[in-house]
Design a protein that fits this description.
Blueprint lengths: L13 H9 L3 H11 L4 H6 L12 E2 L12 E2 L1 H5 L7 H13 L3 H14 L4 H13 L12 H4 L3 H19 L7 E2 L2 E3 L6 E6 L4 E8 L2 E9 L2 E2 L16 E4 L4 E2 L10 E4 L5 H5 L8 E3 L11 E3 L3 E2 L2 H10 L6 E5 L4 E2 L5 H20 L2 H5 L7 E2 L2 E2 H15 L4 E12 L3 E11 L6 E10 L2 E9 L2
Parallel strand pairs: 5-15, 8-13, 12-14
Antiparallel strand pairs: 1-2, 3-16, 4-19, 5-6, 6-7, 9-15, 10-11, 11-12, 17-18, 19-20, 20-21, 21-22
Helix pairs in contact: 1-2, 5-6, 6-7
Length: 453
């Protein structure tokens, strides 16, 4: 197609195109692309587009000048997986793909439509602005705004560059197909969904629990605390790491616009946090103000924040009280069958506790409890007295454990979070209990037990 004579052709060198996408300096961009790419981008933008095989690496992720850049690269094939993704993030990735494949005109048009449909998506606005600027002259870096404008918000511009890197890195470092986080040892059919957050990747993963076990059904970019993960004290602006549960659902009508479409509070601090002396409260999964589409990777006071459309889809799926939320500095993924041995061993452990509980043998039962056990105001000695009274009233009736959930956590020590329904023979309803187990001298011991419903 002929270009009008009064419009400058849209051409980018390899280094400039790389800089456009990831926001690094042109010298670093030239080094990274020349070391990674086999196709000549200059020829591509002059008319011949490289194929997926010719350009095995088209977008390298780097926000610092380091040889590690070469390890983080996105192929056109990976970006093409999001061609039909209607989400705002999927559309942004499609724009990156078009830039990488040399289709600048399509990239620009897609960017125009994206900012028209989602005007508060600041990263998309930045990309659109860069694509427009590239029509008039070379780009030195992502966010190639006039210096006077850059000087007014240098931190925000850098945050957008980091956000772009995190979104692209999440595409390159996909979880293995069918794999699950190690923390999900066993979930009953009554637990319909589970959530895992990888703080290092600014990513939240949503799982659906069906006949074939946990299946990854969605993942979203997410923001965490300003000072990163591992919360320990009130007001430290960090996001806690551990195993939690959604406790309730708060709709937008119950909140200010700051929280967007709603919030899902978590049970931080949990009993393990309390044992470790951690303080604070009000840790939620929530949305963002209506003026924004997303927040920068580390921008909250400790909560996990998502784009409103994505949080809304999660709120429509998950159930309070039964949905676990794992927040890890970095998630470790395993094949479900790799959990079979630990699952069996832990079920045997809990069956031993159940038999001891039903037998009325208090000495045998208390061998499962830690000397540091505490439940509310009760220490181990007071808990023993309670168990003796309950054993007397149970009168030899069998005890069943229903809908058992087992979640594992490894911090300074190994921890289990076990939730189940406790039902005595002849009764139609029973208490829902949660136990926290820890390793002491190589043996599992209960350090907390309580009724949660």
């Amino acid at each position: 197609m002929k270009r009008s004579s009064n419009r400058r052709p849209f051409k980018l060198s390899a280094g400039r195109a790389f800089a456009l996408v990831v926001g690094v300096s042109a010298p670093l961009a030239i080094w990274a692309v020349s070391s990674l790419m086999s196709a000549d981008w200059a020829q591509a933008y002059a008319g011949r587009k490289p194929t997926t095989e010719e350009a095995p690496v088209t977008v390298a992720l780097a926000h610092q000048a380091s040889p590690e850049t070469a390890k983080h690269a996105i192929s056109l094939k990976q970006l093409a997986q999001h061609t039909n993704d209607p989400s705002a993030e999927g559309r942004l990735l499609e724009i990156y793909r078009l830039v990488g494949s040399g289709d600048a005109a399509q990239a620009l048009e897609k960017a125009r439509l994206l900012v028209q449909d989602v005007p508060n998506f600041q990263l998309a606005q930045l990309v659109y602005g860069d694509l427009l600027t590239a029509r008039a002259g070379p780009l030195q870096q992502m966010g190639n705004a006039p210096q006077a404008l850059v000087g007014k918000a240098p931190e925000r511009l850098e945050q957008l560059r980091v956000e772009a890197n995190r979104r692209l890195l999440a595409l390159q470092e996909r979880p293995p197909v069918g794999a699950i986080p190690t923390q999900f040892v066993d979930l009953p059919p009554t637990t319909k969904h589970a959530i895992a957050v990888d703080a290092s990747r600014s990513r939240l993963y949503v799982f659906e629990n069906g006949p074939n076990g946990l299946q990854l059904v969605a993942d979203h970019y997410a923001s965490i605390g300003k000072l990163g993960p591992e919360k320990s004290t009130q007001g430290d602006q960090r996001t806690p790491i551990g195993v939690y549960y959604i406790t309730s659902r708060l709709d937008a009508a119950q909140l200010t616009d700051f929280y967007g479409v709603g919030a899902l509070p978590l049970n931080y601090p949990n009993e393990y946090d309390r044992r470790m002396g951690r303080t604070g409260s009000g840790i939620w999964l929530h949305g963002v103000p209506s003026e924004s589409y997303a927040r920068s990777p580390q921008s909250t006071d400790g909560c996990v924040a998502l784009a409103n459309p994505e949080l809304k889809s999660i709120m429509e799926r998950v159930q309070p009280r039964t949905t676990p939320v794992v927040i890890a500095r970095s998630l470790e993924w395993v094949e479900p069958q790799a959990q079979e041995t630990p699952r069996r061993d832990l079920h045997n452990l809990l069956e031993g506790w159940r038999v001891a509980r039903a037998s009325g043998d208090i000495n045998r039962l208390m061998a499962f409890y830690s000397p540091q056990f505490a439940s509310g105001n009760r220490d181990q000695a007071q808990w023993r007295q309670l168990m003796e009274r309950e054993a007397s009233s149970q009168k030899g009736r069998q005890l069943q454990l229903k809908d058992m959930s087992i979640l594992a956590w490894r911090d300074r020590s190994d921890v289990l979070v076990v939730t189940f329904g406790e039902l005595n023979e002849g009764e139609r309803t029973g208490a829902i209990k949660r136990q926290y187990w820890g390793k002491e001298g190589g043996l599992w011991k209960i350090f907390y037990e309580g009724v949660i419903g």
